[in-house]
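Posting for a labmate who doesn't have an account.
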Amino acid sequence: MRNLLEFLTKYYHWLLFVVLEVASAVLLFGYNNYQGSVWVSSANAVTGKIYEWHSAVESFFSLIQVNEELTLRNFYLERQVNQLSRLYTEATGDSMATDKGELRMLRQYTLVPAKVVSNSLEKEDNLITINRGKADGIEPDMGVACGTGIVGVTYLVSDHYTVVLPVLNTKSRISCAIRGRGYFGYLHWQGGDPGTAFVEDIPRHARFKRGDWVETNGYSSIFPPGVLVGKILQVYNSRDGLSYRLKVQLTTDFGRLRDVCVINDKSIAEKAKLIGAARDSMQNTIRR
């Protein structure tokens, strides 16, 4: 205790200087809008860089396992494509039709690769930060996916970083459908287990079974059809008893998320313009 008092007595002027500096900084940035905004912008940029460096170190030490997983997945996907092409050719006699259809659909979208620099799992409203922004053509309301399935939707965008609203956020709602069945609903996470979510509003007349796959249906401009969501684990009745509620095992492992891609639909402006014109036309008709 005596040593502590001697230390404080000897260096009290430096301690007083630090306290006054902190107080002046709080007053400057807390009660002046311009200085406060400059501080927030600078802090966000620094935080983004720190997250990026931290993620780069983690990514370096997980490269071996990631490369092994990518190799196995590429082999699996190649086998699937070859089998589907063979079956389609045997059924139709046209080996070019499927390739042309896929190319037409893919030309509608562009993919922007990105790295995850910040992620959380333990909250109810989790957020993900990626190292791409306006400078890379990213805008709000773009789909984000990874090699195993759906991730989320872009939410806030700066010049070089983007905050993503992931599936693991209670405010997220993503349209999806049961593969091969045609019945659709929306994906919703209610907190808790980061490996499962629920598909709501599946109609009562729908026919499906546990183990069926759920994927995006392409009804929105955010995701193309066929992006994996998960596999049906359990089937429940909705609260009002008018529809089914499906518990789904998500294909995306958010705890190991590193590489993602942002999906840009080139035709979104045309679709938005057409929908806006239709709504205006309906309003004018009602007024008449």
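Reply:
Got it, the structure tokens are right above this. The radius of gyration is 25 Å.
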